[in-house]
């Protein structure tokens, strides 16, 4: 009786092993036919009794599982790519031929998927795929961590972006080196490969051709700059100041970075420091109208209207189409009226007071005359600017120019139709 039981047990194990081998073989056939969903189904069945398989069939199981979850490599979900990578890694650990190439193919699919996500502005997905590729490289392919950080920041996930960037700083990542490209034979588009190995592999498949490479500069400055910008956006100004100094030290000619530093001090309420830095920026870019405009805005906020007018005028000279500079110039000019009106209201009825009133009225009219040319330019270039038309109408009314008042009324009526 014991012999019969043992015989039955051995028969059961033999049947199990046979069924398992059959399912693995069926998965192989499905993969060859491109039916990856069916291959997954067969492999899921085989996996339930994988402990009964010998090393040869276990090795084949993981290799086919990697192939099934990688599929064609196009439009593969991140979870499936992670599953494929884990399977290929187990197959590689067992010495399976083709497993290492499978891992490279998974990483290439991750990179190409990340590029597609970037183009679709799905930055969070791109960051996840690039970070996964970085991990699959044994954390040696640090350029993928760099791009993962940038995509995380683009997605608004500043904490993750900062974590990746600080890691790059800690390991002394430089980023200079070589990028590898190849042309997709189907689309005709040049695509970035993850490494020289990936480039070689994809060209061998005939899915890509015309391999090329490009030298890339150091990214240390970009990293420190991005860290500083993140701290500024998070209003962590103490950390931001320290990071910003490091960023500018690494990028002394980066005017945009200095503007970020200036804006940081502006947001901190230190407008004097803002002006100091912006004036340095202007010295380096004397033909940049936007810089003069920004200086004008800040000078006006500080109450230095004469300086503000100088900056606005310079901005207009450099960019005659800058409407905002002209409107701000009008606002500063008309701002002088308040003091005159206050004095007029406090005058009495004496002969001297009447004389002073006339003098002040002349000064007031001159203010209007100074503002009108800027308003007329705005209206000429942008006849739909209702606020500019209304302001001009009020000024013409004060100056008694009825013809111009009628013209402004007509323009306002056209805008309401």
Automatic annotation (TrEMBL):
Residues annotated as signal peptide: 1-19
One Pfam assignment: TPR_1
Highest taxon listed in the record's lineage: Bacteria
Source species: Autumnicola tepida
Residue ranges crossing the lipid bilayer per the database entry: none
Protein name: Tetratricopeptide repeat protein
Mitochondrion listed as a keyword: no
TPR repeats: 221-254, 289-322
InterPro entries attached to this UniProt entry: CellSynth/LPSAsmb/PSIAsmb, TPR-like_helical_dom_sf, TPR_rpt
Keyword Repeat belongs to the record: yes
UniProt keyword annotations, A-Z: Repeat, Signal, TPR repeat
